[in-house]
Request: fold
Amino acid sequence: MVIKLLEIGHCTHPHRIIDRRGSWRPKKFPAHVAVMQHPTEGFMLFDTGYAERFSEVTAKYPEKLYQLITPMYLKESEFLINQLLSLGIMVHQIRYIFISHFHADHIAGLKDFPEAKFICSRIGLQNALKLGRYRSLFKGFLPKLLPDDFSKRTIFLEDCKRIKLKSFMHPFCIGYDLFNDGLFSAISLPGHASGHYGLLSKYQKNSIFLIGDAAFTTDDIEKLSKPSKIPNLLFDNVEAYYKTMDQLAYLYSSNHDIKIIPTHCYRASTSLAGEKVKRQ
Reply:
C-alpha cells in the first residue's frame, strides 16, 4: 500500500473560527488530497481539494460570498493534475475518487478526472442535491462542481460490504469495505456534513485514518479544541460533530499506531513525509 499527501491550494480565515481560544489573525488551512495505490485496483484519490474551477463557479454573486468569506489560493504548481504528473501518474490512471463529503473545497477537481469512478455516501449526495441554490451555498456545496455524468459513475458506500472493525479502532465499530479485501474501509464520521466519511487504510505496520473535516487539525483532537459558534451554524449536526471529535480524541490517545490525518491540518504534510508513489 502506498499513500502520499498533496497540498492542493489553501484558504485563509481567522484561527478563532475553528478554535475559540485562537487569535483573529488569518491562518492558512491547506487542502490536502491523498493519492493511494491499491495493489490490484490501481490509483485512488481521497477528495480533490481546490481547482481553478472553484474560482470560476464563485465569480458571481451569491456564490462569490464563498470566496470572500474563505479566500482560496492556488498556484499552478499546486494543481492536482500537475502534482500527479510529477509523480508519474496520468489522469486516466486515477480509477477511483473517494469523496469524504460534498463541500466545495473537497470536490472542486472532480471534473478533471472524466474516467474515474466516484465513491461517496448515497445519503450525503441526496441531501446535497435537494438543497436550493442559497441553502447549498450556506452549506458549502456548489452543484456546478459536479460532473454532468456524476450519477452514472458513482459507487455508494452504503452498498459496499458492511464490516465490524477490529478492536484497535474502538470506539469506531462499523466500516464499509470498499474492495472486499480489508485494505480500505470507509467509516462514518457524522456532524460536519451530511454523509461525511473517513477512510481507514492499512499501510506497512501502521494504519492511516483520513478523516476529512471531522476535525480541522490534529491540535483540535489533541486538545479537544472547540470551534466558535460561526461554523456551528454550518455543521449538519453540532451534537454529532462533538461526539465524533470525542471519539477521535479517544482513538488518538489510545492507539499510537494509527495516523489520524485531518484534511486541513497544517501538520499533516509531514505525517507521511518521504513516502514515494510507485510509477505504473
Notes: The radius of gyration is 17 Å. Residues 238-254 form the longest helix (17 residues).
